[in-house]
Amino acid sequence: MPDWVDGKVYFYADSGPRRLMDLFSVKWSSMVLHALWHWPEGRARPGELQRSLQGISKKMLLQTLKELEIRGLIHRQVFQVIPPKVEYSLTPLGKTLAGPIEQLYQWGLEHRQALDEMSENRRKHTEASASGDLR
Amino acid sequence: MPDWVDGKVYFYADSGPRRLMDLFSVKWSSMVLHALWHWPEGRARPGELQRSLQGISKKMLLQTLKELEIRGLIHRQVFQVIPPKVEYSLTPLGKTLAGPIEQLYQWGLEHRQALDEMSENRRKHTEASASGDLR
DNA sequence: CTGCATCCATAACGATACTG
DNA sequence: CAGTATCGTTATGGATGCAG
């Protein structure tokens, strides 16, 4: 579906896809969306999310949630209780995005072995270029 | 498809999806794959690609291509001529990944307007927090 | 034309401490 | 428990120059 000019793809100036990938550059955004999508009842608290997304820091989780909220992909519901309680859930728009993300993750699951080999190749390669020519 | 433990998703330790997203953290990798996927004949030269991926620098294009080659997602064919000629194309594995990427980009196209509003909201928000309380 | 190496700015990230 | 702020490290990306 790109625009073709002179037989070349002039596709990604400030197009939808490009902006979408900008969003993905926030490392954890797709995982948060994906986790919320799979969450029972579709609502999750920050603490729960952090425990699920192994390795994410509190800072990054909150930052990602804020980012997604501003962009209208997730909804933030505050309960006026002590201690504080907040629940996040996908907006209708967020839910439409969850589909493609699911597809992508599905690919990741199906090609787990290939992905392992990729990491392996990459490791070998960087090692080689690192040690190779010192003397 | 996550693994559920204690009702929480312990999904993304060093799973396929996580590794996949690592690959995507190379900003241009999905666009390069996508461009090659749409390219006539499925083979493209670096120069052509750079002209198509508006805004990519030579350095990043080459780096991305190398990365994708090492990972076995694209193939590099060298022609022994002067001046040098090289063509890149998707490997079979790369082609299977192109599908999900296409889906994602499709979403980006369909929700272009929403994505515009997202950027807008983000702009407003960061402006507000930047200027808001200085006086 | 393809590819590599430097230098440099800045953006992303994590650890930690602190507030309500 | 939710959220913010600060600091320091590392990764990312762009500009430029050079080589085959």
Explain what the structure shows.
Two copies of one chain form a homodimer. Chain A contains six helices and five strands, in the order E-E-H-H-E-H-H-E-E-H-H. With 135 residues, chain A is of the alpha+beta class. Chain A has a single domain, classed as Winged helix-like DNA-binding domain superfamily/Winged helix DNA-binding domain (Arc Repressor Mutant, subunit A, Orthogonal Bundle). In chain A, the strands form two sheets. The first copy, chain A, has a three-stranded antiparallel β-sheet. In chain A, helix 2 (29-38) packs across helix 5. Chain A starts with a strand and ends with a helix. The mean pLDDT of chain A is 86. Chains A and B meet through strand 2, helix 1, helix 2, helix 3 and helix 5 of A and strand 2, helix 1, helix 2, helix 3 and helix 5 of B. Chain A binds a DNA duplex (20 and 20 nucleotides) through residues 25-27, 45-47, 57-60, 62-63, 66, 78, 82-86. Chains A, B: Residues 15-116 form the HTH hxlR-type domain. Chains A, B: Pfam families: HxlR.
